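Exercise: predict the fold of this chain.
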Amino acid sequence: MNQAIIKAMVLVTVILMDILTGMEFDLFVPSFPELQNQFSLSSFWVEALLSVNFVGYCLSLFFVGGLADRYGRKPIILIGVITFIIGSVFCLWATSYHFLLIGRFLQGIGIAAPAILSFLIIADTYPLKKQQFLMAMLNGSMNASAAIAPVVGSYITLYFHWQGNFTTLLLLGLLVLMMTLFFIPTFKLPEQKETLSLRGYIPLFQSKPLMLLMMNIIFMFVPYWIFIGMSPLLYMKDLGVSLSHFGFYQGAFALVFALGSILFGLIMHRYQQKKMLYVSSKIYITSLISIALVTFLDSPNPLLITLAFIPFIISQIIPSNMLVPLCLSFIPQSKGKVSAILQGSRLIFAALSLQIAGYFYQGSFRNIGIIISIFILMVIISQFFVIKNRDIMSFSQE
């Protein structure tokens, strides 16, 4: 097999890992109303199926990052995917809510490895500029598939109930396992092994530019997770959107992000990165205004709420494709740990915010919109400091 085909299969495998990571969430959420009815759950305990997944993810990722820096990406990904498959089996044959929680917890533990390490396979191979281009293309491919996931998930739930979605995740997990086994290369390990102690994370927290970058990226992703996590209850239960139509509302966000990422990847070399970040900041402000307006009106129109959130999706395109590779490359010898901190912190914030949103949810968009608006304001402020930081901007031009 020649080198071109090998590189293509590596990229396909990385895309499949990212699709599995996205579908683990997007394919599952259309099942919320049915799970709520079957197991007699409150909205708080339905959201706990996401939160326990995030907890498992967070417990796993700090070990995943250190282990990957010490023993390589491939073996850790394989262990993670196998754990995810076991969790999927628990979910599929769950006879009670407690078994479902255990399965979601194991899925969270397992999905951490491909979620954290998939892009590091690219980062280990290509320079920063190429990483940013590939990040845009991978995000485009992944989100195009993720745009289909809620639609597929809705119809799977409609015809095969919630068990059908877990069957799909199980089969996709098995496919990723086989592709990883055969096509992901075993990279040469560093001569000086990274420590597995938590003390190995201390130098990362001492880097102020790195922490600023991470803070901005974390705040950037939280509003999306809040919206997607609460939208099944809001749209289907309280706004009257049918299960067959719900996936189109949610899939629209991923499709917009996918097309925008591909376009950005094609034109990013023409413009200075600092100027592009300024553009994204202006779009963030627009999104804050649109969401604040719908929140103030407390609109019961699902189409209007969806349209109001789309500017935020557009505003994410430039910084997510530009700043994430920059963050992972900031301290090259600790890419696994950096990715672990980034992903874990993002999900901790998302899980806490989801539980808060679930607690204050009263059947309308208003309280959700208030929480989302607060986080968007934090994104705008933190991105301003990122743009003004000389260390970050100079590193981005190397």
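Check your answer against the key: The chain has 14 helices and no strands.
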